[in-house]
Task: structure prediction
Amino acid sequence: MTTTTDQQTMMIEAARRFVRERIIEPGRDRAYDESGDFPHDLIREMWELGLINAEFPEAVGGLGLSCREHVDLVEEINYGCLGIGTSAVANSLAALPLMLADNEALRREYLGRLTRDFGYAAFACSEPDAGSDVANLSTRFERRGDTIVLNGRKRWITNCDVADFYVLFAREQGTRGHAGIATFVIEAGTPGLSWASLVHKMGQRCSHTGDVVLEDVAIPASQMVAGPGHGFRLAMATFDRSRPWIAASAAGVIRRARDESVRYALERKTFGEAIINHQMVASMLADMEIAWQATRALTHAAADAVDAGNLRGTHSAAAKAFGGDAAVRVTADAVQVMGGYGYTREFIVEKLMRDAKLLQIYEGTSQVQRLVIARDLARQLG
Ligand SMILES: Cc1cc2nc3c(=O)[nH]c(=O)nc-3n(C[C@H](O)[C@H](O)[C@H](O)COP(=O)(O)OP(=O)(O)OC[C@H]3O[C@@H](n4cnc5c(N)ncnc54)[C@H](O)[C@@H]3O)c2cc1C
Result:
């Protein structure tokens, strides 16, 4: 079990202050949701405060926070806004394959860049016909001497329009299944690479999501992070490591929904009583607290397993599935606690509900998490 250090307490307090003073009090969670603009200014401020890229190792200029320290930061930021949180954590997601792969040169170059200079990265795995089914991806590459040429289309790529580089998965021409998949770093601005089709989303509207298009994109072979046979495993290992962050995001939005609900229930009166005194309302509030404590406990268990070096996919999948499902239920209940007012844009809870839904979808749907858990059980007991 990791204990809280003074430095960690200070970082959490800095994150909490940032969220309160720069996001919630000025109403920028709502403003960015309405405009759908990308929150560049806030992400830059977070970078300056050391609130993003926080798990990057000290060897590349990062803070080298433990996963346990990082998930607590992620929870605080996502208390403010899941859309801003997703935009902020996208760099870390793109960085994970570089942190996990055995490629020191690319790790130093690209993670070093994100710690030295402010910038963005994107993780590009999903495709129009391959989301859950990663082994079915069709973006392909061929070798021409020391050059790699890529063609294909990626979909649902967070930060696609702002990224300075992409960590991208593609298969060797002519292969099928997971064996042919490799991983590359590709610079934005490389001829033939473009982004397209930003999607209009239900929630998390200020995080930008769209396609990355590759038309005869030629890169040096040295940009290969992991070769065929290793890329698929690297993608799966990345998800195992990143899912605790999504669970932490769920803990953040659950706590926000709880706080908004309790404050409202103390003020609003029906039948001559504050509604918090009606047992059915109180029960919803208590369930919110239970959901928060349970999500946080599962998140910490997964993060502690990362830090102890004994993470199994089932730890992260359990935290992510439980947290995502709980966030959807709790935010819908927050709307319920506020009655008709909860259903309007006057109150933030309708936004929390729209934002939370994505937690059950990206980085593996809730169904896929259950597949991971069931397969682990079968391996243990079969
Ligand atoms: C806003 C947003 C941001 C995203 N950001 C990124 C990103 O930065 N990088 C990236 O690479 N991807 C990203 N994604 C992609 C995301 O990870 C996929 O959308 C997700 O994995 C689901 O894939 P899919 O949409 O193709 O759904 P599908 O795989 O088609 O699934 C459709 C439904 O079938 C179910 N299903 C599928 N297979 C099974 C099965 N074997 N058993 C049971 N049920 C199953 C699913 O649970 C789901 O309910 C993002 C997606 C969104 C919406």
